[in-house]
UniProtKB/TrEMBL annotation:
PANTHER family: 3-HYDROXYACYL-COA DEHYDROGENASE FAMILY PROTEIN (PTHR48075), 3-HYDROXYBUTYRYL-COA DEHYDROGENASE (PTHR48075:SF5). Belongs to the 3-hydroxyacyl-CoA dehydrogenase family. Gene3D superfamilies: N-(1-d-carboxylethyl)-l-norvaline Dehydrogenase, domain 2, NAD(P)-binding Rossmann-like Domain. This is 3-hydroxybutyryl-CoA dehydrogenase.
Length: 284
């Protein structure tokens, strides 16, 4: 199946990154968000990234303008749905909210449109079940920051067709990424392995074993991680980290995935990490 237009739902850190790499790869993109200010911020983020690419001599100014012109924005889901060959959803990590968006997309999209979710942990099969096209629903899990990270986990739901899998696999390659096939279980591979480490790092702070700075230093200097786990948690968003831990905890019914109470407390306080200005660290 040929992909010409890509719809992106959500203009946050992931949605804007996906829109950027899709436009860089030559696709027409329509990015939608329920919040106008998030749409503005998303476009600003893309402009900043492209400016840096111009400064570094990776693209010309003309190329930058061309990429930006390929990205349209809207606050209406119908506009994204109308002409998109695939819609990639990147909104809040909540099954009820995501299911509602998929229900609406299913109603408004042409019958050939593939519906993909950038979910970090939620069941693709359950999201697919709210649509009348479960064979066209799939997980397309990009990593943060999208313009930099190579991996895309491609997650097959129970009913995902081979055609759709291959189309999305090839699309990830066209977008300059390396797809890896994964089956539909909580947290897939990436967050089933990563998030318990982050949660454990938060427990070490909660139990007074070490300060956030010390925990991060141990993992950076001792394990060569590019960011310490608490810096990474702030970067991902503490709300997203908590939602993922809850999905693992419920999905596997195993106490080893119990979200740390300190993580819950921070999210309740609105300390969501970089995006809210405060998490384990304070940001300007
Ligand atoms: N957006 C776009 N580009 C960014 C960026 C951002 N947010 N942050 C950094 N970059 C770019 C920089 O501009 C720089 O590019 P140039 O080649 O133009 O110089 C390049 O990345 C390297 O950046 P820096 O030199 O400033 O810093 P660094 O070497 O420490 O790299 C990093 C930054 C790539 C983010 C690195 O710290 C890293 O790999 N961190 C870990 C990221 C990670 O683990 N991501 C996965 C998170 S989990 C996930 O995504 C799944 C989930 O479901 C939660
Ligand atoms: P974010 O908070 O930066 O952005 C979410 C955006 O969705 C916001 O702009 C919000 O206004 C918008 N939104 C919420 N409900 C909406 C709706 N019903 N319709 C339209 N827009 C709506 O979040 P993010 O970090 O970009 O994460 C988005 C998704 O990507 C989540 O499912 C998350 O688990 C996943 N993800 C996140 C990361 C990460 O490191 N943050 C990595 C991979 C995948």
């Amino acid at each position: 199946m040929e992909i010409k237009q890509i719809g992106v739902i959500g203009a946050g850190q992931m949605g804007s990154g996906i829109a950027q790499v899709a436009a860089q790869a030559g696709y027409s993109v329509v990015m939608m968000d329920a919040s106008d200010s998030q749409l503005d911020k998303g476009i600003e983020r893309i402009q900043k990234n492209l400016d840096r690419s111009v400064e570094k001599g990776r693209i010309s100014v003309e190329k930058k303008v061309e990429i930006l012109e390929r990205i349209g924005t809207t606050s209406k889901i119908e506009v994204v749905a109308a002409d998109s060959d695939i819609v990639i959803e990147a909104i809040i990590e909540n099954i009820k909210v995501k299911s509602e968006v998929f229900r609406e997309l299913d109603v408004h999209c042409p019958s050939h449109t593939i519906l993909a979710s950038n979910t970090s942990s939620l069941p693709i099969t359950e999201i697919a079940a709210v649509t009348k096209r479960p064979e066209k629903v799939i997980g397309m899990h990009f990593m943060n920051p999208v313009p930099v990270m190579k991996l895309v986990e491609v997650i097959r739901g129970l009913a995902t067709s081979d055609d759709v899998f291959h189309t999305v696999h090839d699309l990830a390659v066209q977008m300059g990424k390396q797809p890896v096939e994964v089956q539909d279980f909580p947290g897939f591979v990436s967050n089933r392995v990563l998030m318990p480490m982050i949660n454990e790092a938060i427990y070490t702070v909660y139990e007074g074993v070490a300060t956030p700075e010390a925990v991060d230093q141990v993992m950076k200097l001792g394990m060569n991680h590019p960011m310490g786990p608490l810096t990474l948690a702030d970067f991902i968003g503490l709300d997203t980290c908590l939602y993922i831990m809850e999905t693992l905890y419920e999905g596997f019914a195993d106490s080893k995935y119990r979200p740390c109470p300190l993580l819950r407390k921070y999210v309740k306080a609105g300390w969501l990490g970089r995006k809210s200005g405060r998490g384990f660290y304070v940001y300007e």
